[in-house]
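Q: I'm writing up a methods section and want to include an example of the input and output format. Could you take the sequence below and give the corresponding predicted structure tokens, formatted cleanly so I can copy it straight into the document?
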Amino acid sequence: QVRLVESGGGLVQAGDSLRLSCAASGRTISGNAMGWFRQAPGKEREFVAGISLSGSTTYYADSVKGRFTISRDNAKNTVYLQIYGLKPEDTAVYYCAAATVYGIPVPTTTTAYRYWGQGAQVTVSS
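A: Here is the clean output for your methods example:
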């Protein structure tokens, strides 16, 4: 069983930067692709970024390319999401997740991810 805990969210202004962290416990996540998703009020949860087991492959939603950077430190059992140039439309609860579907370097669907954190609220004011 993997427990994921996000941190680093908060209230920021448009244009600011933010780094979210996802700390895993229970067992190592070095054998899992990891992803970040977000869910805005009244909307479905959407994929924003993912990273392969080793970190050599990353994938981003078109809406965040160039502004979001996902990384991982397997020695620390932690995944990060660096966000630059925040926009009001980035306001959402951000979730970290561990995939249990293998054979795909970076899954992008929620069904590929078995373990989820409780979420971190990011609110961007204009």
